[in-house]
Each structure stands twice: as C-alpha cells, then as structure tokens.
Amino acid sequence: DDAPQALVEGAYDYARKHKDHEIILVGIETDIRRILGRFDHKPKNISIEHASEVIGMGEKMDALKEKPNDSMNVCSKLVKVGKADAMVLCGNTGCSVAAAQLHLRRIPGVKRAGILTPLPNTNGLTWVCDCGANAVGKPEHLAQFAQMSSIFVKHYADNPAPRTGVLSIGSEDSKGDELTKETLALLKNIDLNLVGNIEGNHIFDDSVDVVVCDGFTGNVVLKATEGVAKLISGILKEELHGSPLTLLGGLFAKKAFKRLRERTHWSLVGGCLLLGVDGITIIGHGRSDRVAVASAMKQAARCIETNIMDHLRKEFAGLS
Amino acid sequence: DDAPQALVEGAYDYARKHKDHEIILVGIETDIRRILGRFDHKPKNISIEHASEVIGMGEKMDALKEKPNDSMNVCSKLVKVGKADAMVLCGNTGCSVAAAQLHLRRIPGVKRAGILTPLPNTNGLTWVCDCGANAVGKPEHLAQFAQMSSIFVKHYADNPAPRTGVLSIGSEDSKGDELTKETLALLKNIDLNLVGNIEGNHIFDDSVDVVVCDGFTGNVVLKATEGVAKLISGILKEELHGSPLTLLGGLFAKKAFKRLRERTHWSLVGGCLLLGVDGITIIGHGRSDRVAVASAMKQAARCIETNIMDHLRKEFAGLS
Predict the structure, then answer these.
(1) Cis (ω within 30 of 0) for the bond into B130?
(2) With an 8 Å Cβ cutoff, are B256 and A239 in contact?
C-alpha cells in the first residue's frame, strides 16, 4: 500500500546492516532514485533494475501478460536466470503467486504452490500452509504442503522432526470435512512426525510446528489472527489511557509491551514463503511498512543461507 | 470439563442475582445436592431435575439414543413441553446440537441449525454463524443463517439494520470459493443490509454486525481467536514479570487489563445460540467455568426477554 517508499526504505535499512549482501531494487528507476536520494549515505550494495510498468493492487492475473515489464515479471526473471538468489514481492498477492509460478515453475513433482506463513506460538513459530495461494485445496496438495513444510522447517528452523498437524474442528480422526479426513489418511502413510488433527487454538500453543489446511481456511485464520491482535492492542491502549494511574503503569511497563510486539507482530516476520515454487519467493504483506520489508528480506536471506531450495528439491524428489 | 461443579456454582451465582428467574438444574441429583450443600445460602429459585445418565465429552451421537436419561435429553424435553423457556448445555457440542434438534426440531422452513457466536470488536460484538454445528455448508444454509442472524441481532442487540457480510478471502465479489460466491449471489436477492464479502480481520474491526460462513471455517476462527487471545495475555504476563519496573507498571495498570479481559474474554459472553432450533438453546463452552456458566444463563434470559423465538418464527416465515 505504501510502495515504493516503504520498499526502498526497508531495503536501504537492510543493505546498511548486511553489507555483504547485494540488493537489487526492481521498479521504476526514477522513483527509486528519488527515494534513495533522500538518504545521505549511499550503500554500495544496492543496484536498480528498471521495470517500466506497474500492476496495481486491484488488477487481475491477466495483467501479468499485458504488462511484461511490471516489477513482478522482471523480478521473477532475475531469479530465473540466476541474477538474483531470492525475491521479495510486496504487491498484489494473486499476481505475485502467479508471476512466480509462471517464470520459475514449480519444483518437479509439486502439484500446487502454497503460502507458508509463520505465526507466533508460546515458544516460537508455527508454520501454516496454505494461507491463500489457492482458494480450494485437495488432499494430495495438502499432503505435499505437509511434506514440503516439514523439510523447510527442518532446515530453516533447525528442527530435526517438525510436529505436523492437519487443521480441523476436533482432534479425533473422525472430525472435520472430507478434505481433512482424506489428508490425514494420506499423511499416515508418509514418513512425517504426524500429530494428527489439531484445532485453531493449537496453532498458538506450541502443540505443533507445521499446520496444513486449504488456502481459504489458512487465509481466514491469518487475517483473523491479525484482527484479534490489533483489537487487543487497540483496546489495551484505550484502557491504559483511561486514568492517570493506568497511564503511568503503561509507561513503566513499556518494555513489556515492546517485547510483546516483537514476539507477535507480523511486521517482525515480514513475509511468507511461496512454498513449492522453484526459486526462493517471499510474499510480503500488502500493508508492508519499512520494518516488514527488511524482515522479509532477512527471511529471504535465511532461505539462501540454509540452502532451502536444494533441500526441498532433493528431499522432495526422494519422497515422491 | 469442570462439570458438574462449575455449572452448579455458575447457576448458584446467577440465581442469587436474579431472584425472579427460576433455575432448573438437570443432572445427577445427589451430585448437584452435594455441591449446592456447600453454600450457606439456599436460593429458593433453584430446583433440580434428576437425569440418571451421563454422556461424556468423547462420545458419539448414538449416545443420545442409548442414554435417553442423559441431562441433554432431559433438558431438551423440559423446553419441549414448556417447563423451561430456555436451556444452557455445556457438554459435548456435537451431542448438544443433536439433542436440541432431535427434541425441539427446527423452526419451520429452516434447513440447518447453526451456532451463532458473538466475538468482540472495537465497538461491541460481531455475530458469526456457523461456528461448528455443521462440518460443511451449502449456500442456501448460509443464506438462511444470514437471515436468522440478522433477525436475532435486530432484537437481541437492538440494532435495526445489522450489517451482514460473507466471510471470504478478499472483498471483491469474485474472491472466495464456490460456497462464498453462491452465498453472496443468494444474499443479493434478499432484503438484508448486505456489506458483501469480508475478510477475517473485519470480524474484529466493527465493519459488520453479522458474518456467515461454513461451520468448519467458523469453528477454526473461533478456536484461533481464543488461541491468539490466550497467547497474547500469556506473553504479556510473562514480559510484565521480566523486571521490577514492568511488574510495577503492570500493577498500576491492573484496571486496564481487567477492562481488556471484560471486553474480550469468552467467559464474559459464555455461550453461543444454536440458531434455527425451535426453542432457545445456548451452547456453552466445553471449558466453561463458573463465570462463563452465569454469562451463558444471562444470554438465555436475554433471549427470553426479547422474545427471540417469536421474532425468529414470525419474521423467518415471512421471508421464506
């Protein structure tokens, strides 16, 4: 929503902190130069790749073909030809998902790409897939999401045996709809650390490391989670302003609120991996601010450092 | 989970506060008497109806026929014959939903009953239906949930034109799956204050008063909401204990935290209406504590006072 300013500023912050990383900003060159020009310091590790067209937030998938020089197209091609090791896209989610798959294709054997989102739990992060790359899901797609997410978390989060669950409406195997029941049946025949069915609250209580669901449910949960967190912080702020004593208390407790934000706010995670695409693709939040952009870039760098794509290609090929 | 103690204690609290309401406790008489015996005061407005059998939380629907003297069966029959004006069930949700429909049937013309749950928003409550009475949904069921919820909110919450939305993964009409698209198309031909598609976060930001979705999605959202709220309050408590200063701040701000809890905690709402059944049925939380039980009873009383069943029967018949 705040492009290109938030993106350029976030990339600038990232570039200054990670001098050995090369950052390519893809977009309308004059706009990028104007924003970069406001900073006194000029990081040497930022370069610009001009993309003359722009696909807006409300546009349909067709726009990708109608505007071949949009930044999502140009960015994907840079990854395709190896000029970039990873990309962060912060625009129209539908077009981002489509552009990545159009240019980078999927990992051999993968039937659908899924958005893998880290959500906070009491002890770290729970990874949920799919959070909206697809509006509907099939059992074989969810089973692949479980396999890929498990490989991802193993390497990215250094977790040798990620606990994996199917998001349902009861923990017994018989609970849920056809999709969850068939997914669970498929997963029982796969080498996974399978917990079984889990319920919505278990995403947040460290019962599991990986959760699979259809893209509709995942997207609703993701948005609802943001909504609840925003509601709670809004009410808390309002109530702290209710009296001088509570306001003083709020000031004294400032550090605790800051830590809470650090442990739960989406901008500190920044983005979601588009899992299954044959190239590191981080889908940033449409409302990404400067902090979120830098966080999403950190996620991309971690994917590069942990050789995520090699692991996914190799281990997924071995499974299917 | 804490039955029968939490139920008897909650009913006791309620009875003392509402001396003109008659409360019938349905369950194993000796157990109820033992718990009531611990109180010095004996409210005159509490009576006991013995139910000799008990259906556990893990049991299947068949149990309803196998145990005709379970409290859910006995309670439903009391409402059926008019000995009670409303009932609150805090056990096995699947069996509660089935028992109510088995004995009370549905309002003429209603195809499915749905669980209508109030969730907090920035300015009051958003009512979400279905939160898990059915594992799957059909467009005509969701359309009826929208109609019934709108009638309910009009009278219960004194809101002349409840804003009604379809839970989806984007606000444009084209976003979502077949179910949401067909539901939206049906709702456009119905006399409703229709907002259109809404996303998960809009449940909590006062964009709508009524949200319809399939029971799977609604249940996942409900549980996820509880999970996020619990996570945030747990982290906040932990971080407030992080230093003497934050701890002091927490003490000073105590009232703000109390108010936050009052505005967001499920136990202050207590239960969900089983919408569409021909008799007031409140489904309490399986983890209901004493406060939640009393709150659920308050909800039941409000339904009686606002003549919800008459309005639903009359206005729904007029619509279909």
Answers:
(1) yes
(2) yes
In this structure, the number of other CB atoms found within 10 A of the CB of residue A151 comes to: 22
What is the rounded CA–CA span in Å between residue A56 and residue A298? 25
- Inter-chain residue contact A122 with B234, CB threshold 8 Å: yes
Q: Which DSSP letter does residue A273 get? A: E
Quote the pLDDT of residue A1. 62
**Cβ contacts of A132 on chain B, cutoff 8 Å:** 169
Distance from CA of A219 to the nearest CA of B (A): 6
∠ CA A63-A64-A69, rounded to 5°: 105
Task: For B268-304, give one letter per residue: b (16+ CB within 10 A) or e.
Answer: ebbbbbbbbbbbbbbbbbeebbbbbbbbbbbbbbebe
Q: Is A251 an interface residue toward B (CB < 8 Å)?
A: yes
Selecting from A178, A219, A246 the residue whose C-beta is nearest the C-beta of B253 gives A246
Contact B203 A234 (CB under 8 A): no
Q: What is the pLDDT of residue A77?
A: 97
Q: In this structure, what token pair is assigned to residue B242?
A: 């992080």
pLDDT at B319: 65
pLDDT of B1 = 62
Q: Which residue has the tokens 């996303």?
A: B199
B74 closest CA partner among B103, B96, B51, B108: B51
pTM of the model: 0.93
Q: Which two tokens stand for residue B316?
A: 């729904």
- pLDDT at res. A92: 85
Q: Is the minimum CB–CB distance between A185 and chain B shorter than 8 Å?
A: no
Greatest distance between any 2 Cα atoms in chain B: 63
Distance separating alpha carbons of residues A252 and A247, to the nearest angstrom: 9
Residue A53: per-residue pLDDT: 93
pLDDT in tens, A231-267: 999 999 999 999 999 999 999 999 999 998 888 876 6
**pLDDT score at B320:** 55
DSSP string over A103-162: HH-BPTT----EEEEEEEETTEEEEEE-SSS-SS--HHHHHHHHHHHHHHHHHHTT-SS-
Q: Does A317 touch chain B (CB under 8 A)?
A: no
One-character DSSP codes across B209-255:
SEEE--HHHHHHHHHHHHHHHHHHHHHHHHHHTTSHHHHHHHHHTHH
Q: Chain A contacts of B202, Cβ < 8 Å?
A: 223, 227
Q: Which two tokens stand for residue A216?
A: 């509709």
Q: Which residues of chain B have pLDDT under 70?
A: 1-3, 266-268, 286, 319-320
- What local confidence, expressed as pLDDT, does residue A319 receive? 65
Distance separating alpha carbons of residues A303 and A297, to the nearest angstrom = 10
- Sequence-distant (6+) residues with CB within 8 A of B291 are B10, B267, B268, B270
Cβ neighbours, 10 Å, residue A40: 5
In residues, how long is chain B? 320
Q: β-pairing, A46-50 with A23-27?
A: parallel
What is the least distance, in Å, from the CA of B34 to any CA of chain A? 33
Over chain A, what is the mean pLDDT? Answer: 93
Measured between CB atoms, which of B167, B224, B249 is closest to A225?
Answer: B224
- For residues A231 and B203, the answer to whether their CB atoms sit within 8 Å is no
For residue A289, the model assigns a pLDDT of 87
User: How far does the CA of residue B215 sit from the closest CA of chain A (Å)?
Assistant: 9
Instruction: Give residue B22's identity as a one-letter amino acid code.
Output: E
Put simply, whether B28 touches A (Cβ < 8 Å) is: no
Q: Is A259 at the interface with chain B, CB within 8 A?
A: yes
